[in-house]
Amino acid sequence: MSLPPLTANAWLRWDVVRRQLPVGACSVLEVGCGQGAVGARFAAAGYDYVGVEPDPLSAAVARQRLAALGRGEVRTDLGTLALDRTFDLVCAFEVLEHVDDDRAALLDWVALLRPGGILVLSVPAYAARFAAADVHVGHVRRYDPPVLVELARSAGLVDVRTILYGMPLGYLLEAARNSLARRAAAAVSRTGSAAGGHDRSPPAERTSGSGRWHQPDAAALTPALKAATAPFRLLQRAFPHRGTGLVLRARRPR
Questions:
Q1: DSSP alpha helices (H): ranges in the chain?
Q2: Distances (CA, A) of 215 to 14, 42, 168, 218
Q3: Nearest alpha-carbon partner for 91 in 8, 27, 139
């Protein structure tokens, strides 16, 4: 079965995320599913998958990918879920950093977990690393691990743990993204419009486009990107306290 390609950085993240997933979980909600590359992996593994993606262009791609698998669904608004519906697993990958009121968002996600359910999310690591690429894609912040842990606990979650990922390849990928973002910003400055980038557009618009920025779209790329990142996915496991990205796993009390 041919699955959609992940970016190199998403392969690094997925290696950590998939090892944090609860055994036997059957229902999954992914908040901010983007173009559905991760959602397709959940669906292919047999999960009862629901993705939520407000960007209509990304949501359309995600729906097509899930339709090809014959499993899963994509919605554009959390508010369209049944009021009493809960999930075994709620995920949000590279979403929380875009939200102004991150605690309110986290409380909304926790409310969608069944008692005893698991939350897994990822965010860019370390406030001090906030740079051009963060601005370009509409990030409000990055997270130091203790800050994210305290935020999760304040939302009522327990058994909170974090793992950093991306050592060493993530640093090179982040430098490349920052370079591309600076070039885009310079193009905007020269032309006086967003033709060369979108750093002057509203944050919400930048957030919508973030899931489409330099995303591979050819399934044929999956084996190549998977193979190219394989040694780095193994290497980063030796450095769970270093990296450019942060994964959190926590549980809603019973």
A1: 8-17, 37-44, 56-69, 102-111, 132-136, 145-154, 169-191, 203-210, 221-236
A2: 15, 19, 21, 9
A3: 27
Cα(234)–Cα(240) distance, rounded to whole angstroms? 11
pLDDT mean for each 10 residues of the chain (254 residues): 90 97 91 96 95 95 96 93 91 97 97 97 98 96 98 98 98 96 87 53 56 64 91 97 98 97
Fold of the CATH domain 8-251? Rossmann fold (3.40.50)
Q: Which two tokens stand for residue 114?
A: 């069944």
> Measured on CA atoms in the order 138, 144, 145, 148, is the torsion positive or negative?
negative
Token readout for 169 is 């390849």
pTM of the entire predicted model: 0.90
Q: Where are the domains of the chain?
A: 8-251
- At 13, the amino acid letter reads R
